[in-house]
């Protein structure tokens, strides 16, 4: 299974992928540094990632605009989309949910907390099967 991280901060992408490998080692971590590169990647793949994390503050386009663009892609409804940021206003949260984001994640303040948050998100369905 694949997870896509859309973030222009290379360090954040690296931390997400490292934490993901600890909590869900069978997942492949794909990354994109811009919304356009994410759209290109998603348009050229047959396997839509199970989870897509979109940073709210991507250079060149807001996370909300990126979400709008991604939601137009074929088969994207198969993915769980999580918007993430350091701080989010209630209005932005409501807009993200209205546009089709499944979850909102406030960036955790430590690697361990990030791992716990990712574990709750990506392994939620799998724990019911055990």
From TrEMBL:
Q: Which residues form a coiled coil?
A: none
**What keywords tag this UniProt record?**
Phosphoprotein
Return the protein name: Response regulator
Tell me which residues bear 4-aspartylphosphate. Answer: 55
The residues covered by the Response regulatory domain are: 2-122
SUPFAM superfamilies linked:
CheY-like (SSF52172)
Organism name: Chryseosolibacter indicus
